[in-house]
UniProtKB/TrEMBL annotation:
HAMAP family in UniProt: AroQ
Gene: aroQ
GO MF entry, a single one: 3-dehydroquinate dehydratase activity
Protein name: 3-dehydroquinate dehydratase
Signal peptide: none
UniProt enzyme class: lyase
NCBIfam families according to UniProt: aroQ, PRK05395.1-2, PRK05395.1-3, PRK05395.1-4
Keyword field: Amino-acid biosynthesis, Aromatic amino acid biosynthesis, Lyase
Feature type site, description Transition state stabilizer: 17
Record's function text: Catalyzes a trans-dehydration via an enolate intermediate.
KW Transmembrane helix (keyword) present: no
């Protein structure tokens, strides 16, 4: 099993921005924890981050051809604005789990709507960095059930 973890805009600023919402951990620290988790479970993890919508689109499009088994996606602010990301997810066979470190439904009104949710297999929000591990667990369970 190969899983792609995609982080969108501003997630490279983890540990520096709005610590009350996002915590004090950095993206490299988070990615190392996820790689350690995947090593323990015996699957490959590929972590990528971009502040550019087109790059995220290219990675999503490539998932079908690269043998990716699942995607964990934190699209950041693109969650609420990007029809292009929604359409990219709808165009692939790879299951996508949408994750958010903060509870987007308890924050500003504009964060309550997700264009990603209708085409993802599920959404996990509000549990800090654990949303990534929970998303990976969900993909593993889905894989086991076939």
């Amino acid at each position: 099993m190969n899983v792609l973890v995609l982080n969108g805009p501003n997630l490279n600023r983890l540990g520096k921005r709005e610590k009350e919402a996002y915590g004090s951990f950095t993206l490299p620290e988070l990615e190392q924890e996820l790689v350690d988790f995947s090593d323990e479970r015996g699957f490959e993890l590929i972590c990528r981050q971009s502040n550019h919508e087109g790059e995220l689109l290219d990675w999503i499009h490539g998932a079908d051809d690269e043998g990716i088994s699942g995607i964990i996606l934190n699209a950041g602010a693109y969650t609420h604005t990007s029809i292009a990301l929604r359409d990219a997810i709808a165009s692939i066979r790879v299951p996508v789990v949408e994750v958010h470190i903060s509870n987007i439904h308890a924050r500003e009104q504009f964060r309550h709507h997700s264009h990603i949710a209708p085409v993802a297999i599920g959404q996990i929000a509000g549990f800090g960095k654990e949303v990534y591990r929970l998303g990976l667990e969900a993909l593993l369970l889905r894989q086991q059930k076939g």
